[in-house]
Design a protein that fits this description.
Layout (H helix, E strand, L loop, with lengths): L1 E6 L4 E8 L10 E9 L4 H16 L8 E5 L5 H18 L3 E4 L1 H6 L9 E8 L2 E7 L5 E8 L12 E3 L15 E3 L5 H6 L2 E2 L25
Parallel strand pairs: 1-4, 4-5, 6-9, 9-10
Antiparallel strand pairs: 1-2, 2-3, 5-11, 6-7, 7-8
Length: 220
């Protein structure tokens, strides 16, 4: 099975083609081609061309894709919309299954976090952070939620914190926990638990509907 894996929940644009599914009966997933672009403002412009690039590198075309997996956040409205709309349109056009995963769960699948109690954090902007905690087996124990970086919960036995550099100085004191910066990689997206395919926003959007004032002369 060849999976197209996408994530646009962070400042990084992640695109990968992954063979195999990691479970007891099948081999571990193999990443055939991948791109990670650090340009949040150009997700919409770069996503489709980047998919074409990884297909060409792997010697495949769209007809070789067996399913599509996409990170559903948490993340900002615009970023999630770009990735999820592209994933849904691609799966629909190809007639293949579409699978959603929590982007923080995908980060928790990183080998850097294997066997360690972890706190996974991403930048929510507005001086806030998205977060979830994981036990040593990689199972989510709390979250996803959003809060100020200083209010992030620190689970007992915390061994590693994954957080972007933009938040590193705003985190609470984490003791001896290792601080790393990870992102949702293609293999993690493919092996993370499935969630409902809908954006995980966690808070109200920045946009506010305008108030419409009607002149008394036009009222019935």
């Amino acid at each position: 099975m060849t999976t197209l894996a996408l994530d646009t929940s962070t400042a990084r644009l992640v695109v990968g083609l992954v063979d195999g599914v990691s479970d007891a009966a099948r081999p571990a997933p193999v990443v055939r081609a991948a791109r990670v672009l650090d340009d949040a403002r150009r997700h919409n412009e770069l996503l489709v061309p980047t998919i074409a690039e990884v297909l060409a590198e792997a010697g495949l075309n769209y007809a070789d894709i067996d399913r599509v997996v996409c990170g559903c956040g948490p993340g900002p409205f615009t970023g999630l919309r770009v990735g999820m709309a592209t994933a849904a349109a691609t799966a629909d056009a190809l007639g293949v299954p579409l699978r959603g995963v929590c982007s923080l769960d995908a980060v928790a699948r990183s080998p850097r976090l294997s066997g360690r109690v972890a706190l996974v954090v991403s930048d929510a902007r507005r001086r806030e952070a998205y977060w979830a905690t994981y036990d040593a087996a990689g199972a989510r124990t709390a979250g996803p939620e959003v809060c100020a970086p200083a209010d992030l919960p620190l689970p007992a036995g915390l061994a590693v914190v994954s957080a972007p550099d933009t938040l590193a100085e705003k985190l609470p004191e984490t003791g001896d926990a290792e601080l790393v910066e990870l992102y949702p990689e293609p293999a993690g997206l493919v092996t993370a638990p499935e969630v409902e395919f809908r954006p995980i926003y966690l808070r109200r959007p920045d946009a506010v509907a305008p108030t419409v004032r009607v002149s008394p002369a036009l009222r019935p």
